[in-house]
């Protein structure tokens, strides 16, 4: 029988997942949950058979260069793999896996929650009461937001999460528009009554709400830059539950400050946990601390997926969620 593989997990995971990992692997867990230092990460890649990082770890080419001969798998806890240099790993013969699908519905729920929250001023209204009840009473013209029903939603990135957002938004009476590298299959387009825009610029100029649902790759870094943000209507809103880097955050803050768009709902930021100070304390900006997949169910199932990917790999089978360099 082979020795159990040394699996280093960089952050605390749900108990049930850690218990399973202890049973199956020689698991080096992070019970304290303090993010590993660079030195600790270097030690982990030098010694482990498998590394389980999260979005808070930078697994770049330099770190991968320090991998020991045993390291054969980086099993990311998370769907997005922009924290990992997948090319560098591939070149060294290290496989990368992720945890898609299980977080799709929860992340789409959070995007939909922001699509509702920003135009209808939910956090603004909630704060007025919850901070020592500042409510002076009902009035006909007070707390008027903007209607969702009948408006146009432009989805950037029509993958699993983008489609799940589209289904929800359609039920709320929004018309669905999307920009993607290529149109989705006609059956899906028909079901969603979705309109494909080959030109992102043209779509942005026409939408009432824009939802960012694409991965962060070199091609999507600052996809929404100052020029593109300025194409949007002053009445339009933007929601991002994907990755902060897709939007030029400083440019967004400026456009909001200048009234170039009506508001934003952001779950992700360029330099987490830092947030551009110009975005703070604005009633038309709803900020959340990267909570898209933060349900007990998603985080548990993400951990279970990590375990399945590691086990498949060790048993010599192709892991279900392999990420290839061409995918990113
Ligand atoms: C996680 C995510 O919070 O899966 C992703 O890409 O952004 C979230 O589910 C985080 O990335 C886990 O590493």
Properties at a glance:
328 residues; alpha/beta; Rossmann fold; six-stranded mixed β-sheet; 12 helices; 14% strand; globular
What's the layout of helices and strands?
Elements: E1 6-9, H1 15-24, E2 26-28, H2 38-47, E3 50-52, H3 61-64, E4 73-75, H4 86-91, E5 95-97, H5 104-117, H6 122-130, E6 152-156, H7 160-171, E7 175-179, H8 186-192, E8 195-196, H9 200-206, E9 209-212, H10 226-229, E10 237-240, H11 249-257, E11 263-266, E12 285-287, H12 296-314, E13 322-323
Helix pairs in contact: 1-12, 5-7
The protein binds 2-keto-D-gluconic acid.
Description:
The chain has two domains: 6-101 and 296-327, 3-Layer(aba) Sandwich (Rossmann fold), CATH 3.40.50; 104-287, NAD(P)-binding Rossmann-like Domain (Rossmann fold, 3-Layer(aba) Sandwich). A seven-stranded parallel sheet has the order 8-7-6-9-10-11-12, with helices on both faces. α1 runs parallel beside α12 (296-314) and α5 (104-117) packs across α7 (160-171). The protein is globular and about 70 Å long. It has helices spanning 15-24, 38-47, 61-64, 86-91, 104-117, 122-130, 160-171, 186-192, 200-206, 226-229, 249-257, 296-314, and strands at residues 6-9, 26-28, 50-52, 73-75, 95-97, 152-156, 175-179, 195-196, 209-212, 237-240, 263-266, 285-287, 322-323. The longest helix is centred in the C-terminal third of the chain and has 19 residues, at 296-314. It has 328 residues and is of the alpha/beta class.
